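can u do me a favor
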């Protein structure tokens, strides 16, 4: 009977660790992508304030 309790608690512990690692990884990836997007938006805003364009318009083929 002790073995079944031990197996159950090992399962619960392993499952809990799996959930915690999954949530931690999800949070880390989310934070990374948010930071990347903020950096892109900041750079685009600075370029817009300075009057610079990233790409030429379709009629500006000589750039």
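np, heres the sequence
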């Amino acid at each position: 009977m002790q073995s079944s309790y031990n197996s159950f608690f090992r399962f619960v512990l392993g499952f809990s660790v799996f959930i915690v690692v999954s949530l931690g990884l999800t949070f880390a990836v989310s934070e990374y992508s948010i930071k990347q997007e903020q950096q892109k938006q900041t750079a685009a805003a600075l370029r817009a304030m300075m009057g610079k364009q990233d790409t030429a318009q379709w009629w500006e083929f000589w750039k």
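Helices lie at 2-50. hope that helps!!
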